[in-house]
Inverse folding.
């Protein structure tokens, strides 16, 4: 894991959920964590580009008209396609899980006593994939530079041969 | 101490037995849960099924953390029935049942808080 502090947003209408997830993640990782009780409030802070958004599915227990997690997820993926979003829900529903993955969530975690470990593993997986993508990007650039160098050498050789230098 | 309605084994594991952290979560639950129950009753009385579903849904994980195992199914049933608007005639009885068990659990949690206060 890199030494720079990652920024994580937790969106849940239950303050106890925010507190417990935040405490658990602070125990396991060196994160800057911010909690929001509605998706709308979090969206206003998206320009700070969090590394991960942990998003509850139902967000209307306090504000009845608050947008639900699926709507917020779609907004995030439209505006910031590479941002990682982990959906959290008290509902163990295959339909909801499939929908959230289809909308671009990195994972779907069901609330309950296992959620904290699941969340931790999900975040580890996301960072491992990020590191892998960085490496793939590096090797892709390296191979392009290598091919360009070989082509340049061949062209130079032909030119030098044609002009009688070699 | 042995409790009848609550089981703090999850909280003990989650906090690595830290009494101050356990106290914090129990207090948060004791502050939020009565309001959650009141909301359930209020929405039921008004026939507001989606807000009732939402209130039951919100309290569900908190009940799991406090180990109030006997309520797991009742709360899930209230959530399902409110969402699908089925078994509405049995909702009042289920909500009363949840209220009764919660009242006993709140007392046990208050006892647990007193015990935790004595721990360094």
């Amino acid at each position: 894991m890199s030494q720079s502090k990652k920024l994580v947003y937790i969106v849940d209408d239950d303050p106890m959920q925010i507190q417990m997830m935040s405490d658990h993640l602070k125990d396991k990782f060196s994160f800057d964590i911010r909690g929001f009780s509605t998706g709308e409030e979090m969206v206003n802070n998206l320009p700070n580009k969090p590394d991960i958004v942990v998003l509850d599915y139902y967000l209307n227990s306090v504000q009845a008209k608050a947008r639900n997690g699926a709507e917020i997820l779609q907004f995030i993926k439209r505006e910031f396609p590479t941002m990682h979003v982990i959906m959290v829900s008290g509902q163990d529903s295959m339909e909801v899980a499939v929908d959230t993955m289809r909308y671009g969530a990195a994972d779907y975690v069901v609330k309950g006593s296992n959620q904290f470990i699941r969340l931790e593993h999900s975040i580890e997986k996301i960072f491992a994939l990020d590191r892998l993508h960085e490496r793939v990007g590096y090797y892709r650039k390296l191979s392009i530079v290598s091919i360009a160098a070989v082509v340049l050498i061949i062209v130079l050789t032909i030119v030098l041969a044609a002009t009688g230098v070699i | 101490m042995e409790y009848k309605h609550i089981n703090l084994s999850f909280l003990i594991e989650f906090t690595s037995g830290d009494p101050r952290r356990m106290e914090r979560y129990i207090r948060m639950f004791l502050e939020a849960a009565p309001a959650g129950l009141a909301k359930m009753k209020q929405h039921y009385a008004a026939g507001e099924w989606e807000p009732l579903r939402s209130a039951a849904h919100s309290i569900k994980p908190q009940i799991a953390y406090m180990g109030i195992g006997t309520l797991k199914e009742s709360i899930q049933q209230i959530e399902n029935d409110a969402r699908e608007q089925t078994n509405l005639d049995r909702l009042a009885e289920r909500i009363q049942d949840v209220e009764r068990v919660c009242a006993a659990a709140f007392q046990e949690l208050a006892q647990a808080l007193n015990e935790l206060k004595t721990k360094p």
